[in-house]
Amino acid sequence: xxxxxxxxxxxxxxxxxxxxxxxxxxxxxxxxxxxxxxxxxxxxxxxxxxxxxxxxxxxxxxxxxxxxxxxxxxxxxxxxxxxxxxxxxxxxxxxxxxxxxxxxxxxxxxxxxxxxxxxxxxxxxxxxxxxxxxxxxxxxxxxxxxxxxxxxxxxxxxxxxxxxxxxxxxxxxxxxxxxxxxxxxxxxxxxxxxxxxxxxxxxxxxxxxxxxxxxxxxxxxxxxxxxxxxxxxxxxxxxxxxxxxxxxxxxxxxxxxxxxxxxxxxxxxxxxxxxxxxxxxxxxxxxxxxxxxxxxxxxxxxxxxxxxxxxxxxxxxxxxxxxxxxxxxxxxxxxxxxxxxxxxxxxxxxxxxxxxxxxxxxxxxxxxxxxxxxxxxxxxxxxxxxxxxxxxxxxxxxxxxxxxxxxxxxxxxxxxxxxxxxxxxxxxxxxxxxxxxxxxxxxxxxxxxxxxxxxxxxxxxxxxxxxxxxxxxxxxxxxxxxxxxxxxxxxxxxxxxxxxxxxxxxxxxxxxxxxxxxxxxxxxxxxxxxxxxxxxxxxxxxxxxxxxxxxxxxxxxxxxxxxxxxxxxxxxxxxxxxxxxxxxxxxxxxxxxxxxxxxxxxxxxxxxxxxxxxxxxxxxxxxxxxxxxxxxxxxxxxxxxxxxxxxxxxxxxxxxxxxxxxxxxxxxxxxxxxxxxxxxxxxxxxxxxxxxxxxxxxxxx
Length: 701
Description:
alpha+beta; Porin; elongated
């Protein structure tokens, strides 16, 4: 554990060292080194420091008696006043640690390192070899100064490391022009939605998340982040308010490392145990190798207890096995204590752009298709999954092909205690027909490993129509759906958008006027109003969604449009209609969001007297339907719901999107009949917290 801690602190120390080394014009200067030429000051600093330690370090008796051969690791800083300060020491003997601190406390003030002529701090690590050896300074053939005795007290860094450090540069926020995805949250994307949707831009906003380099053509994220920088000279202040914890940039590479936090405390006015909380810790890494390869990884370790309605929904998603719940949008949760959950999550991907028109991503995460708050085509409400994605952009076209490896985790489909794997492939073609109008064509197919079929190579073709392939492989072998999206830029302030999803089509049934169950479709219409009422950074959004019963379901239950017991499109499944009204406002680091949702859906009764499917539960076989005709939205256990969610907060760190916030949810859920699967609920949930905001939390079940 101690070595792990040392490694972590070394990493943090190296951040300070590499940043400072690459930016200061002059290293710290001992009095003895003031007459040295500039190129020799660093070597003189090393030699003078080593000599001081050699002359003043008293090896403790306990170490001498043991004839100890080893080392002491010391991390230290020379601050902008020229004072030495020990940050951390590591050695087998505590006496060696204390002696190291004593010796560094004796060091005189020096002239501090400078950057642009101004004093700054610099951090170093040093290894003190025991027993001590007197350092020797000698010029080599080219005038470079270096220690001649490799077993002597090591200088701050070895010559090899000095060579690496010399190529390091000030970190220039390269992620903002990289091939990485901009972390997708509705609130963050709203900040540059107006610029991406200006009349005449050739942007494509349907397939999310966006790649930074695509956004950079229309919106300067780096300049926006820089405008929020707080003036602070301390290392802690910079890391807390302005910078990544670790940020390193070399000649052909860069990387950042940040902690992830999601710490919340709250109250649920409805639940018996009315305190709610969440405790998420993790690490977030971004990196670039060359100009075309980027990668990112995030690991979350979480425990929490939520509002009662949220907990009930999570437990209704329970997978096969002993674990009691699936946390929506995250993953399987095991029991933590008596009434809480433990739910680890990991996400990562590689992003490679071999040519300017092609981006390839392979990883574990989520995707979203649409311009609205909801998506009827593909949403991000389910748990993360493995995926391969190709984005091809040319002329006025962006073509996105995505292949996904999904899981059906219900007990009835588990084989040998292993979850069932199924596959999904999507094509989405976005075409800017004019400077105002965009049209998108969507198709998707779901298939399973029937007949040892595995991943069907027929669906690898990125430009073929899935419906034709489905017929060739067997009509029962897959579940294909078609979709259409559109967006019209009324002006630079108002956008209109919509979606249409078609799961099954029978012209005679559609025109027959009998409301056939085969009319499996849904649609969305919405509008966005940017800088509403001439208030900068105020976005208003209105959206209506409805999906008919039995859409997304299938007669082969494993071919439903879902993953980990969660829909891959709208989180309500099917058999619903809803109206959503959203307002978002940002002022410098302050933000506020308001959301109102009014909806009606038809739930199943799930009782001994009535156990048919009314079309809302997409996991049920549509052959269990209640009727062939007369099918209407809201049939079954009609449930009206209203939800409002208000959130306000302050952006602590623009580089990491770390926020402090308060959140209030009011939810009224009223089914006509109270059943074990449909409980009347009236919830007021208040919470406060601090969060690294990297993904969407959906609380509106």
